[in-house]
Automatic annotation (TrEMBL):
Ranges for domain HTH lacI-type: 5-58
Keywords, in A-Z order: DNA-binding, Transcription, Transcription regulation
Family annotation (Pfam families): LacI (PF00356), Peripla_BP_3 (PF13377)
UniProt-listed CDD domains: HTH_LacI, PBP1_CatR-like
InterPro entries: HTH_LacI, LacI/GalR-like_sensor, Lambda_DNA-bd_dom_sf, Peripla_BP_I
Source organism superkingdom: Bacteria
UniProt cross-references to Gene3D superfamilies, sorted A to Z: 3.40.50.2300, lambda repressor-like DNA-binding domains
Protein name, per record: LacI family DNA-binding transcriptional regulator
An example Gene Ontology molecular-function term: DNA binding
Amino acid sequence: MGSRPTLEVVAREAGVSKATVSKVINGRDDVGPTTRERVQAVIASMGYMPTTGRRTKDTAPTVTVLFDAFVNLYSAQVLTGVVTAGLEQGVDVVVNHLPAGNGPGALSPAWFRSLAGRGHAGVIVVTTEMSPEQVRSCSAAGLGLVAIDPVSIDPSTTDRLVSVSATNWSGGMQATEHLLSLGHRRIGFAGGPPASRPAEQRLHGHLAALGARGIPREDDLVHLGGFAYEDGLAMAERLLSLPDRPTAVVAGCDASALGVMEAARARGLRLPEELSIVGFDDTYAAEWTSPQLTTVRQPMTEMGRVALRTVLELSNGMRPETHHFELATTLVVRSSTTPPPHAAAA
């Protein structure tokens, strides 16, 4: 067995001073990006373990959680699950935010090597699209990787990328079946981004519920815009401007459902008497609305816990139970849904 590489050996191999290697190890920002990447590559290739500064053997393992959009209720509840599981497992959780457009260096091979060089065990990415190259770079750095509600999954990464999500198709069906059971037949859909896998699955569940009742899809009633409040507002404006407007709307998430509510109020519609609304997520806000929001609960906190436990197992060389965990959704009925006016009159 060869001798353990020293700081001096790393510096010589990278063609820099020992002081520069030390700065890279300790995360100092006064090292040029090209030099930093070269040093990190040498550290990773030699398996260098610093004897000063950050130590990985004597400290708790660290997991990075990367969000594409951190300031929303969905992210807060997912993070609660990750942090709770981290406390149980003795793991430090570091939260990071992905810049718009991924930003320079984000999810690059150097970024993954940097985490590995600092002793991180793995990465959890939330609602973030990852290319096959990024998945391979994470694996090459020796990091565990788990995606929560990935935007999409490239077929070439199915044996490397472990994902955690809810039963989105079933949830979309549950939401629409609830409205159908109340007597609604003209139901609008204000969904998430067209490229989003969870949004697509929720739409397909919605359409399956309509199809089971013999109700054909009407394109005017289906909109895929986004998961933000403003997206719900915009999609509701189009739905409620139809000559024969819907009596109910299924929203892609709770945040966009709030936008639908505001658009309805701006038109003077009474909720839920003139418009029933169903959300998706069951975030804290669902009980704060007036009326309280009927929604599909996805177990976001448990999704975070499963992701944290799984990324630790992967970092320890264990094989995952499955490459795609799906946790069950449940419908939570509150006061934002009621029979349509014609059914109430009948």
